[in-house]
Write a structure and sequence with these properties.
Number of helices: 12
Helix content: 25-40%
Distance between the termini: 38 Å
Largest sheet: 7 strands, mixed
Strand content: 5-15%
Radius of gyration: 20 Å
Low-confidence stretches: none
Order of helices and strands: HEHEEHEHHHHHHHEHEHE
Mean pLDDT: 90
Structural class: alpha/beta
């Protein structure tokens, strides 16, 4: 599992997550299975883990443990599965506040090392002749090549600016549109060459990383999926249950922080007639937990990680 992906903030996240060793937990982003393995090690025989991953490659990392159920699907549907679990327990009465079955839910929002390091997945500009794919599920749906070859110049500029925070978004979109008029952009190398004129010498990788991030987010509809996950996760936790999320860039971290504080991704505060917050979660960690210097030295991809923790309020 370590070769597939090195789990980030492992001890910190699982320690924050587990409040009941006999409880039911969800690992919403199974990946290499490192977080799930540590979670299982903290649970008693009566504990249970429901894990999710839309990447079929991740399914091969499942340990043989009767306490684990691994689901091949997007974590945005977590509330649907929580409802199925509730009904399987014989709880068939209406539940307006949500299915409330999980004692804790963990999500590590990073792209796995396996996806970055597998040339055929097209996530990294390190592989010049890789197909420009970037689909998390590896099958079905629009690829990054589809986007760069079919989106209008204005649409490309918008996603580069919004999801990649690319300073030269307009120039980058113009270069992509110009290059595809001569020949379709099919590989990572095609895209890198199309953008070469705006890549600052010595900082090419920083700009490309932002552009690839923007395309990956658009391909996988990551921001919408995260919003649906956060809403469903809050409703799927038992009172006192923990939501633990590891983010890697400012867009997703802002969404997670806002939702944990207010119950909305835009951060707007809802109150009752007495001025009390109606947010379903209570923030446990006011400031995010970040990796230690030793962890970053052992795993450079942990450098930008931030861990946030919140707890389901009673009666909300």
């Amino acid at each position: 599992m370590s070769q597939y992906h090195i789990p980030v903030l492992l001890a910190e996240s699982i320690s924050a997550l587990v409040t009941n060793p006999d409880g039911t937990y969800a690992d919403a982003t199974f990946g290499g299975g490192g977080h799930t393995a540590e979670l299982l090690s903290r649970l008693n025989d009566g504990g249970r883990v429901i894990a999710f991953d839309r990447d079929i490659d991740a399914l091969g990392n499942a340990p043989e443990d009767g306490r684990l159920t691994l689901i091949h699907n997007n974590f945005r549907y977590i509330e649907n599965y929580a409802e199925e679990l509730r009904r399987s327990r014989g709880e068939n009465e209406p539940c307006p506040d949500g299915p409330a079955v999980f004692d804790g839910i963990l999500a590590d929002l990073g792209v796995s090392s396996h996806q970055f390091d597998t040339a055929g997945r097209g996530f990294s500009f390190r592989f010049e002749d890789a197909p420009l794919d970037m689909r998390m599920n590896g099958e079905g749906g629009m690829t990054a090549a589809d986007i760069v070859n079919s989106y209008s110049e204005e649409e490309l500029e918008k996603i580069l600016r919004l999801y990649g925070e690319v300073d030269g978004a307009r120039a980058a979109a113009r270069l992509i549109a110009s290059a595809r008029n001569l020949s379709p952009i099919s590989t990572t190398g095609d895209l890198d060459r199309a953008l070469s004129r705006i890549l600052p010498r010595g900082a090419e990788h920083k700009v490309l990383a932002k552009i690839y991030q923007a395309l990956r987010i658009e391909v996988n509809q990551e921001m919408r999926a995260l919003e649906k996950f956060l809403e469903g996760a809050a409703r799927s936790l038992v009172p006192g249950g923990r939501l633990v999320v590891i983010t890697y860039h400012s867009l997703e971290d802002r969404m997670v922080k806002n939702f944990m504080r207010s119950g909305n991704i835009d951060g707007s505060r809802n109150e009752d007639m007495y001025g009390r917050s109606l947010a379903p979660l209570e923030v446990i960690s006011r400031k995010p937990i970040v990796p230690s210097e030793s962890e970053i030295q052992n795993n450079t991809r942990a450098r930008s990680a931030k861990l946030r923790i919140a707890e389901r309020r009673a009666g909300l």
